Amino acid sequence: MKNHTHHSHTEKEAFEPAHPERYAAAQKSTWVSIVINLLLTLFQVVGGFFAHSQALMADGLHSLSDLLSDVLVLYANRHGNRHADANHPYGHARVETAATLILGVFLAALGVGLLVAAAMRLQHPSALQAVSPLGLAIAVFALLAKEGMFRYMLAVAMRVRSQMLVANAWHARSDAASSLVVVVGIIGNMLGYTFLDLVAAAVVGVMISHMGGKLALEALSELIDTGLDAEEVEAIRQTLLNTHGVLGLHDLRTRKMADNALVDAHILVDPKISVSEGHYIAELARHAVLNSHHVLDVMVHIDPEDDMQAGHNAKLPSRPVLLEQLAEQLGKPVVQDNRVIFHYLDGQVDVELYLTAGELNEEQVKSLQARCDVLVNGSSLFRAIHVHSNHGVARQ
């Protein structure tokens, strides 16, 4: 049973963010990052060229990749925050995941390219040049700018709880680390170890490819529906079991959806309660998980028994067939004129037969119950038949 509220949206509303605060914060922080990375790309690439620093130019290409990734983040943030629609009933959160995958693959390829380029230049040590002090000044400036950007973006990401913004913030921290490597490489070059500038460029390439590979693998694991960690799954399990009316739980499954998760669960309830009460318990369980965990939606399936251990009921006859069999054995008036409830349990059927008040006297009710007991003893289909009347339950 899936308890899910559906809302219709106009075309205009479809482009409005589902989480306005998160959307606005992501837009602002990303634009700040775009401006900074644009300036750093120009300073580092141009400055590295004139300062004869391969490491600084490599870091400039890293900043360029950041600029491109920021544009990708803007796109993903806009489309990932759109409301659910007919074609995307679970929303568009996976757009963020796809963007993270693309970003990771791009960074990995860029890092490998920089590493190969540095290795090829190291094959010709005589062509290496000394780096001018201008390169060192630009590298220090880039280091301070990227560290400051990391702290700002991480604070925003934690406040709005965005996985993609957290990834982008730590990407900025990796940029700061690469800029630190560049600073060390340039200082070594200026001290006479000219090859250290290219070594720094190679290290930057390794760092970029490592970060890209990590982002790509994390995004890929989500796209193939990797579940939440064991600790969070256990916490959700306890929340469901603590719900009043839930007697047991099995088939608890989770899968990540960007910063949220989707949960499926089978809960065990008393098999003799009404459908509406079972639905009520499912609603209680669903809202308990939604209120206590960072979950997008919960699908709760109600089980009257543990179907992992009980016999299968799908092979049993439907209600019209069961009524026909009872009518043949007990008489049509008994079945047609009274209320009959079937309980499909453990591969058999329990029957509750409610007689109209005053229809039969006490002796007749006991006689009917005796006929039912004989029917049950000779049947592999019916497990029990209980006759209810104003005289009580006629059990022998």
Automatic annotation (TrEMBL):
The keyword Mitochondrion does not apply. The chain crosses the membrane at residues 31-51, 98-120, 126-145, 176-208. GO terms for molecular function: monoatomic cation transmembrane transporter activity. It is a multi-pass membrane protein. It holds the Pfam family Cation_efflux. Residues 228-305 form the Cation efflux protein cytoplasmic domain. Residues 31-224 form the Cation efflux protein transmembrane domain. The keyword Membrane applies. Keywords: Membrane, Transmembrane, Transmembrane helix, Transport. GO terms for cellular component: membrane. InterPro entries: Cation_efflux, Cation_efflux_CTD, Cation_efflux_CTD_sf, Cation_efflux_TM, Cation_efflux_TMD_sf, CDF_Transporter. It is found in: Membrane. NCBIfam families: CDF (TIGR01297). Belongs to the cation diffusion facilitator (CDF) transporter (TC 2.A.4) family. This is Cation diffusion facilitator family transporter. It comes from Gallionella capsiferriformans (strain ES-2). The lineage of its organism: Bacteria, Pseudomonadati, Pseudomonadota, Betaproteobacteria, Nitrosomonadales.
